[in-house]
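Input set for joint prediction.
Command: fold jointly, output tokens.
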Amino acid sequence: MPINYYIFLSVALFCVGVAGVLTRRNAIIIFMCVELMLNSVNLLLVAFSKMQWHALGAGNPDAGMNAQLFVFFIMVVAAAEVSVGLAIIVMMYRNTHSIDVNFLNRLKH
Amino acid sequence: MNAKQLNEMNITQVLFWFLSILAILGAILVVISKNPVSSVLWLIVVFVAISGHYILLNAQFLAIVNLIVYAGAIMVLFLFVVMLMNLNTDSEPQKNRWLKIAGVITGGSLLLVLVAALKKADLKTQIAETNLGDIGLIHNLGMTLFHDYVIPFEISSVLFLSAMVGVVVIGKKD
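tokens >
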């Protein structure tokens, strides 16, 4: 497939995530939209890693492998990030009995 | 699209368009569904579609890791938290309608700017090779991971340990 299609697919998914972060007030849904943006970038990185067939043909057998390992490490960090973020949201709900992000603006005052 | 064009497209292109439409539709439904539980379920659909894209790009290791870690573990965690909070009662207060419209317009403007910037880019000759190539297979990735990336791999275990400690400290009751 031409790389254009993957770029536009990733851009579309990323923008849907941005619109979700800006329009929703539920903290969990905002967090899910952040995960969606993260995954669109991962998809683009994997598509770029499969674009290296010139280098593969030129006798570099490792071309593009670093990108896939980079995506692997992004997934590792994202798993840790999700666990900490959900713990923060649960604590927030326990203290205020709400996960409305507009309610949690006490840092402003 | 008529049947003749469909015959000319091969199976890879059909799968690509199917998975792309599934991913974008699922993403839109994540944002617009009222019930948080159905949002989580649609996000699982998006992740399965992205895993299908990885398989199409012959990145099989990442496809399986994405399916296990994201669609399995992380989304179960999300579903667990949503159900723990008893949020499925449509109790979410609605945002101001103008703020919603402004958010959608902002996202659409970002899409417009990025597409307009990338449309003229000279990428027509760059092909991402689908369903061939062996850099995504688990043997090659494992060899590279445990030869060149041993130190980051071990450091990520320290990251997991600290995340675990942090979660326990945050979630502890006072």
